[in-house]
Amino acid sequence: MPDKALLSLQLDHLKELQARYESALADQGFDSLLIASGAAPYRYGDDQAWHFQGYGPFLHWTGLTGREHCWLWLRAGHQPVLWLHEPVDFWHANQPLAEEPWQTFIEVRSSQSPEAPVLDDPGSLAVIGDPALLDNVPGEPNPENLLRALDETRVRKTPYEIECLAHANALALAGHRAARDAFADGESEFGISLAYQQATRQREADAPYHSIIGVNDHAGTLHYQYYDTQPPGHSRSLLIDAGVRFRGYCSDITRTTAGPGESHFAALVHGLERVQLRLCDMVAPGVDYIDIHRKAHQGIAALLSATGLVTGLEDYEIIEQGITRVFFPHGIGHFLGVQVHDVAGKPTPPPEDAPFLRLTRQLEPGMVVTIEPGLYFIPSLLDPLLEGKVGQHLNQELINRLRGCGGIRIEDNVVVTETGSRNLTRDG
């Protein structure tokens, strides 16, 4: 059971959401809004459905993941109404709903039907959710301007949301420690995954995303998706990118560990962590997130030079020649909330020098971002560079030695405060 302080914060959160949503509805000319939680689609040619975690706006209000065919109705000046789908069914169990104070703010009704409820006097009604489930539902489905306005309500987190994110970080860190210990014991990627799940008490399917667990050269694939079931002959490195959901909110943490005898790789891990901590310290109101991304390239250029991976070039030349983009090909991070890559991050397209950046905004208090620089040895990116005109400046012998370690990523979750930032991951 969550503590009373968190439950009290949730009531404040709901009051704030009511105000934000009422304002958005009025601006867009709607009297009420019906939100569908969604439902898992069935796999093609099969009678099994994909795993389900819920539609973002529904989770923003309720935090109830895994609840299919539920509906939330919002009206200005009225108590929100939530219909929970609770069919009489001997095939499946209905998940019990714990009694909590938020149920005094939202009226909860039980429904055996998966269909949208019949609404009394909805006025001008908007309905949002998976379009496949909105056929024959009265109201305007997924109005584009309203959806954009509702996305904006999720950009600045309430104190309740921040504490949920902090708790999700604390739970995930227990898993990361267990994963590191399993790696030290010589476990396989599959064994490391089991250790992480055991420590977090969370099924892989319920995690906010599929955990990335790469041992040795697998760490060089950014979203490595397979788990070897057999331990490697020699454990050189571990990269684990894994989080936890808590009351709908996600953590997203990455750590890299060097194996025994990997002194060069361990030095790179240490060096990148120093860069990462300086980038976290940059998070503050008024800072352009793109500037943090560009500062990451400066730090990586300095690290490449200091460790002898690149020689004969000034740091700015390492960046200008595109070398840092080969070692660090992704963006520095993204918004975080009820979705891992939370919404409304790119009101403007990313710049040409950062095409994969998921966040292009100036930072404001209440925003929660990830800071995740990386340094990888990716053959498909490195080999053309080594064969090109700048190849003479790369230490090919050292690079070849480190290829088997795959790569490094270090990721924290950071809140923008009124005066600076709070690192939820390091606090945990």
What does this structure look like?
The protein folds into two domains: 4-152, Creatine Amidinohydrolase, Chain A, domain 1; 159-427, Creatinase/methionine aminopeptidase superfamily (Creatine Amidinohydrolase, Alpha-Beta Complex), CATH 3.90.230.10. 35% of the residues lie in helices and 15% in strands. The protein has twelve helices and 16 strands. It has a six-stranded mixed β-sheet with strand order 4-3-2-1-5-6, covered by helices on one side. A three-stranded antiparallel β-sheet has the order 7-8-11. It is globular, with a radius of gyration of 24 Å. The protein starts with a helix and ends with a helix. The relative contact order is 0.11. The mean pLDDT is 96.
Q: How many distinct beta strands?
A: 16
What portion of residues belong to β-strands? Answer: 5-15%
- Counting structural domains, the number is 2
CATH-level-2 architecture of the largest domain: Alpha-Beta Complex
Q: How large, in whole angstroms, is the Cα Rg?
A: 24 Å
Q: What's the CATH first level of the largest domain?
A: Alpha Beta
- Shape call: globular
Give the overall pLDDT as a whole number: 96
Order of adjacent strands in the largest pleated sheet: 4-3-2-1-5-6
How many helices does DSSP assign? 12
CATH topology of the largest domain: Creatine Amidinohydrolase
Main sheet properties: 6 strands, mixed
Structural class: alpha+beta
Give the N-to-C terminal Cα separation.
20 Å
Order of helices and strands: HEHEEEEEHHHEEEEEHHHHEEHHEEEH
Question: What portion of residues is helical?
Answer: 25-40%
Low-confidence stretches: none
The CATH superfamily name of the largest domain is Creatinase/methionine aminopeptidase superfamily
